[in-house]
């Protein structure tokens, strides 16, 4: 049997927090002391109440529910909206356990902003992405000043229930990974969107265009994962010299596709820094 995780609290379980919660439950990893989750509405709390080993708390019925949850848990995942973070930390800070590990799911809120509120508490900043909802996520983790290797190992195991984990250095590392895996699903969806438009340009109807674009992308990425090869090697394998694929790839390259990706991710990184400064 897998080594047990310590008790966990999800303070705010929106789409991302809810996905991680469901992944943790589905993994079957035992959680000593149970899992606690808070939501503002009774309806949202009720939707999670049937999960095994989960205590779901509706703040509209239990105003001190956040305090109750964090007091009972070793690992506290903060999943509320960024603008709510400061007030929430003021509320829960005095009630955290001495050995608490506080994990931020909030974009644009720095480790220092958490530590300014929580003192010498172990803080870990995370950057999961939306494929976590189907167990195919990539999560970046950055340790705060007081987070130990053991703390990171615990949080890593938790996020591995919804995909892969990459440890990065500080807020700069989180901002960097956010430009690739964090924002990356949007880039993929945009590419597929443009493939659909190209298919329609070639004369296919809407449904057929979507099918061939989406399934080609899903098939290619599944093949990539199964092969273990570098994508450049697979690309060369299907690109016959002077063939049709060669002409298309050369057109992409001539348009500066590589430079465009660099400029796009640099723009995302700059915006991440702006958001942190605004916060």
Automatic annotation (TrEMBL):
> Mind telling me which Gene3D superfamilies this protein's record contains?
NAD(P)-binding Rossmann-like Domain, ProC C-terminal domain-like
Associated pathway: Amino-acid biosynthesis; L-proline biosynthesis; L-proline from L-glutamate 5-semialdehyde: step 1/1
- List the catalysed reactions: L-proline + NADP(+) = (S)-1-pyrroline-5-carboxylate + NADPH + 2 H(+); L-proline + NAD(+) = (S)-1-pyrroline-5-carboxylate + NADH + 2 H(+)
Q: Which UniProt keywords apply?
A: Amino-acid biosynthesis, Cytoplasm, NADP, Oxidoreductase, Proline biosynthesis
Outline the extent of the Pyrroline-5-carboxylate reductase dimerisation domain. 173-275
| GO MF, any single term | pyrroline-5-carboxylate reductase activity
Q: Which positions fall inside the Pyrroline-5-carboxylate reductase catalytic N-terminal domain?
A: 8-108
Location(s), subcellular: Cytoplasm
| Record-listed E.C. numbers | 1.5.1.2
Indicate where this protein is primarily found.
cytoplasm
Pfam families tied to this protein: F420_oxidored, P5CR_dimer
Its biological purpose is as follows:
Catalyzes the reduction of 1-pyrroline-5-carboxylate (PCA) to L-proline.
Family per similarity comment: Belongs to the pyrroline-5-carboxylate reductase family.
| Descriptive protein name | Pyrroline-5-carboxylate reductase
What is the species listed in this Swiss-Prot or TrEMBL entry? Microbacterium amylolyticum
């Amino acid at each position: 049997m897998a080594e047990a995780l310590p008790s966990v609290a999800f303070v705010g379980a929106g789409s991302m927090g809810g996905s991680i919660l469901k992944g943790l439950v589905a993994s079957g990893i035992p959680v000593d002391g149970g899992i606690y989750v808070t939501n503002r509405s009774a309806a949202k709390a009720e939707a999670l109440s049937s999960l095994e080993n989960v205590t779901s708390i509706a703040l509209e019925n239990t105003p001190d529910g956040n305090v109750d949850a964090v007091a009972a848990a070793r690992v506290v995942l903060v999943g509320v909206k960024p603008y709510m973070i400061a007030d929430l930390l003021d509320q829960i800070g005095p009630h955290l356990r001495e050995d608490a590990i506080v994990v931020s799911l909030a974009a644009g809120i720095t480790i220092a902003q958490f530590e300014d509120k929580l003192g010498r508490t172990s803080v870990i900043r995370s950057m999961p992405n939306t494929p976590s909802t189907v167990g195919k996520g990539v999560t970046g983790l950055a340790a705060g000043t007081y987070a130990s290797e053991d703390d990171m190992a615990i949080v890593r195991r938790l996020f591995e229930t919804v995909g892969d984990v990459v440890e990065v250095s500080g807020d700069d590392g989180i901002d960097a990974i956010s430009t690739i895996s964090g924002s990356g699903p949007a880039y993929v969806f945009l590419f597929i969107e443009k493939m659909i438009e190209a298919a329609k340009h070639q004369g296919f109807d809407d449904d057929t265009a979507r099918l061939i674009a989406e399934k080609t992308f899903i098939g290619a990425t599944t093949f990539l994962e199964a092969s273990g090869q570098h994508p450049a090697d697979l690309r060369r394998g299907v690109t016959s010299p002077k063939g049709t694929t060669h002409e298309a790839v050369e057109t992409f390259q001539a348009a500066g596709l590589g430079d465009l990706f660099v400029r796009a991710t640099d723009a995302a990184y700059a915006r991440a820094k702006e958001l942190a400064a605004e916060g």
